[in-house]
Design goal:
- It is a single chain.
- By secondary structure, the chain is mainly α.
- It has one domain: Hypothetical protein af1432 (Orthogonal Bundle), CATH 1.10.3210.10.
- The protein binds zinc ion.
- Zinc ion binds next to α2.
């Protein structure tokens, strides 16, 4: 098993390679890897650098859902906990989007502490990218819809990490203030 920095570095490299060529929705169509870096960095700050496996899972959190990567490979390379965290935050892509969103709300309270933190960091990043200067009506509606759903998911994830909870609240306030 890799430890500490090596684990995080290996996760970052794998994520960058597997998500290569993918773009984010929203502002400037940034490379997808920017989202992964942001989520991992939010988690690193939230745990004050104390939980390398959580940060590695942050880098990898979309790799099963959005690339041709299996949980088994993550288990072999990064261990059970990292692979398990990524699996916990992987949506069932056979379901339509509206159902996937409902499942996230219902399932959130039953997730592990680590998965709850990844969920919150993911929602913070996804709200931030939807905050744009002088948004048009469609962008405003999309942001409000996303924030409303994210608040429902995060309601089931709170209480694990006070810094993350506060950062999410701050991000929602910024989103509302941007309209
Ligand atoms: Zn994500």
């Amino acid at each position: 098993m890799l430890s500490g920095l090596c684990l995080v570095s290996e996760a970052a490299e794998l994520a960058a390679r597997r998500h290569a060529g993918q773009q984010r929705k929203g502002r400037d169509e940034e490379p997808y890897v920017n989202h992964l870096a942001e989520v991992a960095n939010i988690l690193a700050a939230a745990c004050a650098g104390e939980d390398a496996e959580l940060v590695a899972a942050g880098w990898l959190h979309d790799v099963i859902e959005d690339t041709d990567t299996a949980a088994d490979e993550l288990t072999q390379r990064f261990g059970q906990r990292v692979a398990g965290l990524v699996e916990e935050v992987t949506d069932d892509m056979t379901l339509p989007k509206s159902e996937r969103r409902q499942v996230q709300v219902i399932a959130a309270p039953g997730k592990s502490a680590g998965a709850k933190q990844i969920k919150i960091a993911d929602k913070i990043s996804n709200i931030r990218v939807r905050i744009v200067f002088e948004p048009d009506l469609e962008q405003q509606l999309e942001l409000m819809e996303y924030v409303g759903w994210a608040e429902q998911v995060v309601a089931g994830c709170r209480g694990v990490n006070a810094r993350l909870d506060a950062l999410f609240d701050e991000t929602v306030a910024n989103a509302r203030g941007s309209l």
